[in-house]
Write a structure and sequence with these properties.
4 strands; globular; mainly alpha; two-stranded antiparallel ribbon; A middle domain of Talin 1
């Protein structure tokens, strides 16, 4: 995970990852709900980027402390909090275009995770280690959950007839929300309790087998020389360090949500000025909230721990649908705009291709840079068609 030394907690207070999120909260009283000029836009953007990087660091510290596969859930839940907050605030302040914001953001998150995070992790890992290996059973189960959630919540509204348009009726939306929570909960239990070994890094043939440590993390059986592969170059952080990072993770998330809300109006104005469709705002939101997951996944892939990268990618996609849709469904009671969740024909085709390619990638349990390149091409196609529908 991260190289966290057993230093004293007071020394941690001097690190930029601690004071940057706190500093990022300072501009909020002066910019919240106000029209800001170019100077403030730049300042907020810089602080927003610093907060995202700080969130990555603190989430990895916490993940290192709790071990795998619990650690992979930390960022997945964190980015969902950011995503839901952004969608709700924009839908409350938006007009008729806001009715599809939840759909655009969630679908963008699915495409970015299943093609972007997975693709770049495969490519980075394969470039550095030639061939990457992972657990096909656990990864296949994660992809199956993602595709089921995407179909129930994003595809079916296009074909239902109870309500005109790509929209669920009240009872249908309730069913989709309950089903999403149930499936996500079932997956979490499977990942963290019943079949944890399905989601742990796989030992390569030229290394000794990995063992499941007391916190669920994978480690060498008894040979210190294998630590380079395992990636655990430092002891887990102490409880005090982990608690400090947990607190700073929450502060970082608050800063990210607040600053992203401040930047949302300039983002919408910029999208309009570039002549892009309003739906492209959802792509930008998804790219923003998934930045921590992407950085963490790439770091894991560089250490030849691709299973962690896949856990992060598919886990984030699952959380984006399985947690975001139920919350948005509940919030729709008070939202001033209808909730259009149904995908268009182009989006359904992209989802179908992503499903087929994802299955073919996962089944062998190993991959090369070719598979990573295919997924990244699909991501580029999605972004291009989102900008030029």
């Amino acid at each position: 995970m991260v190289r966290v030394s057993q230093s004293r907690v007071p020394s941690l207070l001097t690190r930029w990852t601690v004071w940057a999120p706190i500093l990022a909260l300072v501009p909020l009283p002066f910019t919240w709900g106000k029209h800001i000029g170019p100077a403030w836009i730049v300042i907020v953007a810089v602080l927003l980027g610093a907060s995202v990087l700080a969130a990555v660091h603190h989430a990895e510290v916490v993940a290192h402390r709790v071990g795998e596969p619990f650690g992979s859930l930390v960022l997945a839940v964190a980015v969902t909090v950011i995503e839901v907050a952004l969608i709700v605030t924009l839908m409350v302040s938006g007009g008729s275009d806001a009715s599809t914001l939840a759909r655009d953001t969630v679908f963008s998150a699915v495409m970015i995770t299943c093609n972007g995070i997975v693709g770049i992790s495969l490519l980075v890992g394969a470039i550095r280690h030639d061939t990457v290996t992972f657990n096909a059973e656990g990864t296949g189960a994660a992809l199956a959950c993602v595709l089921t959630l995407a179909t129930v919540c994003l595809v079916l509204p296009t074909f239902t007839s109870s309500v005109s348009g790509p929209e669920f009726s009240g009872s249908q939306l309730t069913f989709a929300a309950i089903a999403s929570l149930a499936l996500y909960g079932l997956f979490v239990v499977t990942q963290t309790v019943r079949h944890r070994d399905f989601f742990l890094p796989v030992a390569r043939e030229d290394y000794r087998p990995l063992a499941v440590g007391p916190t669920g993390g994978a480690g060498p059986v008894d040979d210190p020389s294998t630590q380079e592969y395992d990636g655990e170059h430092a002891d887990p952080p102490s409880n005090r360090e982990a608690l400090l990072s947990l607190g700073m993770l929450l502060v970082s998330l608050v800063a990210v949500v607040g600053l992203a809300k401040v930047e949302s109006k300039p983002i919408e104005d910029g999208v309009g000025a570039l002549g892009l469709p309003h739906s492209f705002v959802g792509v930008i939101i998804a790219l923003l909230v998934l930045a921590p997951e992407t950085l963490a996944a790439v770091n894991a892939a560089q250490r030849d721990r691709l299973q962690i990268s896949l856990n992060l990618g598919y886990g984030s996609a699952m959380a984006s649908i399985g947690l975001t849709i139920p919350v948005i469904a509940l919030a729709s009671i008070w939202l001033p705009t209808p909730l259009h969740l149904g995908l268009g024909s182009t989006q359904i085709v992209l989802l179908a291709i992503t499903a087929a390619v994802g299955i073919l990638t996962i089944v062998p349990g190993r991959a090369t840079r070719l598979q990573g390149g295919i997924h990244l091409i699909l991501l580029v196609a999605f972004v291009f068609l989102a900008a030029n529908p």
